[in-house]
Amino acid sequence: MNRKLLRAHVAIAYWVTPAEPVHSFLENMIVDLAQRYDAPVFEPHMTIYVGSDRANAAEEIIVKAGSCCGPIEAKTLGVRHGGEFIKTLFVQFALNRKLERLNEMIRSAAQDSSNYQLKPHMSLLYKKMSVLARRQLAGSIEVPFSDVTFDSIKAVRCASPTKRRSDVEAWHVVARKSLDE
């Protein structure tokens, strides 16, 4: 296990990642924001569920969940900001039945009693910032798409909660799968 994860509770986060060209667009935006604000770089993703550290079961879980879902479309609701480290700056999405179903399938397959609440968003920046700075930054960013297709699912070992740069830098993908039609 990664030493950096020993300071916090270790969990498995289940992500969906956007298809191209949105993936590259967001990846470039995240890298640019990270450089400008001295923040960590991470892959564009939407967290669907966070549960127990059962990495040995993660591949089976995402195979089950990913095989019956197919690619997932989600409607963007705009760029938002918040005081939580993992929600400094993010794209908010509308919750839809397919996202809820994937969350339920993973929760069931993980046999986990986590109280994770799905609030679909994709972070763009993880950084402690003042409300004013976050508000100005959120107001300055527009995403040029109204819908995003997510075409892969990943299981990522992470600190929970993720509260600092070193937590983000310690993330480790333990399983991945394409979302089949």
Percent in strands: 25-35%
Query: Which structural class do the helices and strands define?
Result: alpha+beta
Percent in helix? 25-40%
Instruction: Give unreliable regions as ranges.
Output: none
Ends apart, CA distance between termini? 34 Å
Number of helices: 5
Overall mean pLDDT score? 91
Rg, nearest Å: 16 Å
Q: H/E element string?
A: EHEHEEHEHEHE
Q: Total number of β-strand segments?
A: 7
The backbone outline, from C-alpha atoms, is globular
How can the largest sheet be summarized?
Answer: 7 strands, antiparallel
Overall description:
- The chain has 181 residues and is an alpha+beta fold.
- The chain is 32% helix and 32% strand.
- The chain is built from five helices and seven strands.
- Strands 1, 2, 3, 4, 5, 6 and 7 form a seven-stranded antiparallel β-sheet that branches.
- α2 packs antiparallel against α3 (97-110).
- The N and C termini lie far apart (34 Å).
Short characterization:
The chain is α+β, with helices and mostly antiparallel strands. 32% of the residues lie in helices and 32% in strands.
Which characteristics define this entry?
alpha+beta, seven-stranded antiparallel beta sheet, 181 residues
Give the SSE layout.
Elements: E1 9-18, H1 22-37, E2 46-52, H2 55-67, E3 72-81, E4 89-93, H3 97-110, E5 121-125, H4 131-140, E6 147-160, H5 165-169, E7 172-178
Antiparallel strand pairs: 1-2, 1-6, 3-4, 3-6, 4-5, 6-7
Helix pairs in contact: 2-3
